[in-house]
Amino acid sequence: MSALWRQFRRNRPALAGLTILALVVALGVGAPLIRPGDPWAEIAQPDLWPGEDWRFPFGSDVLGRDLLSGLLHGARVSLVIGFSAALVAGSLGTLTGSLAGFYGGWLDDALMRLAESFQTIPAFLMAIVIVALFSPSPLTIVLSIVAVSWPGVARLVRAETLRLRAADFVLACRSFGMGDARIILTQILPNCLAPVIVTISVMVASGILIEAGLSFLGLGDPSQLSWGTMIAIGRGSLRSAWYMSAIPGLAILLTVMAINLIGDGLNDALNPYLRDRSK
Amino acid sequence: MSAIAIGFRLPPYARFLARRIGQSLALVFCTVLITFTVINLAPGDMVDVMAGEAGAADAGYIALLRQRYGLDQPVPVRLLHYVEQLGHFDFGYSFRHNKPVLQLIGERLGATALLMGSSTILAITGAVLLGIMAARRLNTATDGIISVLALLAYATPVFWVGLMLILVFSVKLRWLPSGGMETLFSGLTGPARFGDLAAHLVLPAITLALFHLALYTRLLRASMLEVLRQDFIRTARAKGLPERIVVGRHALGNALLPLVTMVGMQLGAALGGSVVVESVFAWPGLGRLAFDAVGERDLNLLVGIVLFSGLLVITVNLLVDLLYSWLDPRIETQ
Amino acid sequence: MLNPMNISAPWPRRRLLKAGLAFGAGAFLPRLEFARGAEAPARGGQLVVAIFPEPPYLTSALSTLGPAQVVSGKIFDGLLTYAPDLTPRPQLAESWQVGADGLSVRFALRPGVTWHDGTPFTSADVAYSLLTIWKQLHSRGRSTFANVEAVESPDPLTSIWRLSKPAPYLLSALAAVESQIVPKHLYDGTDPLTNPHNLAPVGTGPFRFAGWERGNYIVLERNPTYWDQPKPYLDRIVFRVLPDAAERANALETGEVQLLMSSGVQLSDLARFGAAKELAVERGGYAYTAGITSFEFNLDRPVFQDVRVRHAFAHAIDRDFILKNVFYGYGAIATGPIPPSLTQFYTADVPLYRFDLAKAAALLDEAGLKPDAQGTRLTVNFDPAPIGDSLQRAAEAIRDTLGRVGVKLQLRTQDFAGFVRRIYTDRAFDTILYSANAAPDPAISSQRFYWSKNFQPGVAFSNGSHYASAEADHLLETAQAESDPKERRALYVRFQQLVQTDLPTIPLIAPEGVSVADRRARDYSVTADGAYGNFAEAYLVPK
Questions:
Q1: All domains of chain A, ordered by start, with CATH?
Q2: Is C412 in the B-facing interface, judged by CB distances under 8 Å?
Q3: How much is the ipTM here?
Q4: Distance between CA A193 and CA A211 in Å, rounded?
């Protein structure tokens, strides 16, 4: 673990990404403390520019909602949805991929055909279909992100499983009479971990982007104010008060960039490390 | 394994092709099944929408409409009927738009093709230029800047880029129009019309291209680095060939292969992304049509569009695989 | 069967005078409200109107969707048109008479009117449209024309309708957009729902269909053989399909679009539009399609069967706040199911429920709904109809004030199809908020929400509350067939008083229609249906 951290630490951009993400998480967690109350509350004078009123440092939107409050609470929405979707998709993909790779045969064919079908349908369109048809809510949004993300993980894990299935130490375990489940869980999966972790980190980023896109199209969770929703609301005032859309967009940009940097850093750090371990 | 029992052995490419087509058909069927099932699980159907929009109706009218549109039959029956229609290349009828689905798709295809085509060309061209630049000036400032820019483009939400571009180029500078495909009834023809179309196309194409540009640049750079390490490059350099040719012909030719594969894979994603771009720029394409079909529960249209894009993606991927194996003899077609 | 030549039995003088007014006055009534200055209308020019969504057909005989009405209203004329105060005026019918017993209506059609393809317009077209289209395929026509048993066409310019029961509301439902006459020679013998002329219509109106580029625009051109010469004045009307509110606002501000109709305007943009030099905001003009925004209970839920609970809710909703902040003042407080603009039937003499949280709390206490440890008395679901932003904002405001008396409203969302299914088929709801048409006559609009016989699960916007009051039914059914206007009004007054006491539904706001247009566009909204009208008088002042 500490070797991993040392590798990671050397990568300056990755470190920068980690710092930014930590900041975003902190702000999201601290949102009820910094800006208690409902971000939907129309408490300010409408159309305030950032800096015009020190009580509302990022200004207010067309109905007088505090943009800073929106930014902070929006961070929670984005992060929670992004992380949960990535974890679920990662788990689901790992499960199907490992089973497909390990057992092969018709199970492999069936699961991979299923994964391919999901990948053939244009991703964002599928997300829209799922969310629009089953009413926007945190659950359906997460579900839609999972639906478009799991095939990638599944194929990756399958490829790794195929590679490892024939490895010496696995054959050795079999000869001891170790059951299939134990082999998969204790021998194969830990060795796939590296690429899976990297993929999951990237999925957090794409999950946040998908959620923002859905919110922008009006399919976001109506009870939460997300960054994408803020951009959509600000769109009507683009001519005169462009900051309403610009600021939440920058927030998304920074967060996604940070996560990608972390993902790159993890990739660089993990791969040589684990490649050695599996020998 | 050759699934086709013919008296003689088919050449390897034909067998490969046959197997792939068989797989593709299975894939298409699976896709249709998934979409059909999902949209039928949703609450409310097209008649609910129509009756709701009418603001009034009676049970007789609703029953009439349901029977008309075949919505009174159970889902498996409708699925069977749909698949049967597909066999005759009939994508069904959109009762909402009162046109056959295939015709509707055809009408909007041009706009979408234009948008996606131009954005793909932009993305590939940009990626090639930037990727080569970055690979040649490895670990210098230029490389760093390109990497950062690529990351920025990758991380920025597509719709936000669109809005900001509109803000700068349309609202503030007034250089370009903010939406639509052409200026209506301007009476423009020939080059002037082309210019008008181009002016409307610039911003949406750039918006859609940026994300993929970033992706392809990173991929090409990594791919170039991989290729430049190979033996045959060292041989070429040892032979005294100018760097320009080493990189431009030998390295690039090989580095392009993974890029081509990636472009094929991303085609589906581009179509999905076009929904947002078409919304922001009021571009009359298939993406927006699909989005509207969801709210209208226009089953035939939605499944038709998904099916169409699925077929497109599968065909392109198949062509890419063929191209790949033809270009690189090391790859087997088994 | 009555002898068609004998329908007019001697009428009392009073009635004759009234009929005469209705018959002839339309031609002489001065244009109210929207006459703007004495300039002669300028000829020529193109008007671009933004619409959304794209209509499925271009005839509102088959589709009652707003955009279908907007576009087809300029291609087709109707039997009648209506002044802004809803008085009927001649259009394709020059005069009309209702029989003394109310069981027949005779129309004298205008001579010299031709369809866009040159064929003369005759009573055969009216008969075909009524019997084959309106009575069978039009969602509202089925009930509006339910009482019409037969249509006689003794000559090409006379149409006589035989009714099984008097239908005084019938004459209000004859606007072009509501009951559209289609050409028999192009529809007879075909399946109307798939007739290609639904997409390329041939009409009698001031503008001809000239083209439709899907997903983009629809274009109409001036009809040079329009019966009402020298109209129309515009050369061309273009309808641009712009599904996005921001896009519409943008197009209006850059001048790419010159008219935005009520349903396309985001009220929060109105201040900006009002300040723009080139734009003019037009209030009113939508009397024909006036609606009421209402809060409705599901009376099948035991808790709502106690009238005190319903009254409490009414006292806990701040209508003034909603009118001011959600509708920006564009509208009026609705005191009942009939909007104030329907002056013939409206009465303000009904129980009123002032915003009074203390009273609401007291009523809830009385009804046995005491606050628990957290102060919550009741938790119920709340489904605002997903049509536009205003309903969502109003729903949030309602949730806020009801929350203050301990009633927790849990806002749920779904898209339109899901809403219709959940409320009207599954009936899986507690309370809803929706907007519905309440014009031009209560019998064909408000009635459907209060009549027990219109409790039809599976039918959207039917009697969702499941209100069943024998007295209300009696009042509605009698008023439906009552020919004497005074009697009819009395019945509706009693109806309003009854339902405002029973309160199965709490009417909140009667929103005002607002159009935003280029300042140069004039006289586009001169009838009761506003910009849904035929634009025969519309013109553009030259730059």
A1: 2-277 (1.10.3720.10)
A2: no
A3: 0.83
A4: 26
